[in-house]
Amino acid sequence: MTKSTQRIGAITIWSFALLLSVARYASGQSAPNSTTPFRDSTGHQPLEIGAIVQSGFGVTENRDDFKFLLAGVHAGKVLTDNVGHGPLRGNFEYAVEVFPFWQSYTPKFQRPTCINPPGTVPVCSPFYTVGGTFTGISITPIILRWNVVGTKRFSFWGQAAGGLLWTNHKYPAFGGPPYNEQNDGPNADASVWNFTPQGGVGVHYFLRPRRSIDFGANAVHISSASLGDRNPGVNASVQFSLGYTWWK
Question: pLDDT value at position 95?
């Protein structure tokens, strides 16, 4: 079992343990009343702030062995009253997320750096290791979320978002073997800066009128938009989140 798999397993076990403890806690509380944030008859537009842990994996053929683990904070402000009718009646929220802890666990491989002017034999450096664990910071400054009013316990949401990622090495690793002048030349690296357009769905589970556990699933694309010499990116990943939120 790899270290990355062990870390993903550990955070999954931790998440289920947290859920179990909260469920036990919630079972001893009275059911929330109609003053949950989205059922407040006063017209108050709530503010939320919470802690969030996120974990997932790549889903495309050449990225299905990529793993992700993130921890950070989420903050949002509901900007409208409840509008609409029927099961989709809800409100619009603007939010941001910051993950000061961001890691991606990727395969390691060997590559050289080669110089190959036209008509010459390639001159290459010794092979060195690339890939492995990448550490960074991710910020998602634009989250556009629709919150469904829901019930006294549950409120579902859907969102579209865009963010920025910085990593301590150019992400993801790129190159051979075997040698290829496009993959292993001196201008064949990715970038430490990547963009993270994404979209997802989730649910708030209210323990109290102003406390909720939050579950989400995001489809995240990672791309440098060609800021580097190459843009290998991660075309698609699925990342699941677990959070705890305070509502004001």
Answer: 98
